Amino acid sequence: MLLFGSMTKQTLSWIREGAHSSTRERLWRYGPLLLWLVFISLASTSEFSAANTSQLVRPLLLWLFPNLSEARLAALHFLARKAGHFTEYAVLAFLARRAFITSSHAFIQRYWFQLGLLLVVVFALLDELHQSFVASRTASIYDSALDVAGGLTVLLILKLYGRGAQEREAQVAPG
Question: What is the pTM of this model?
Answer without folding.
Answer: 0.79
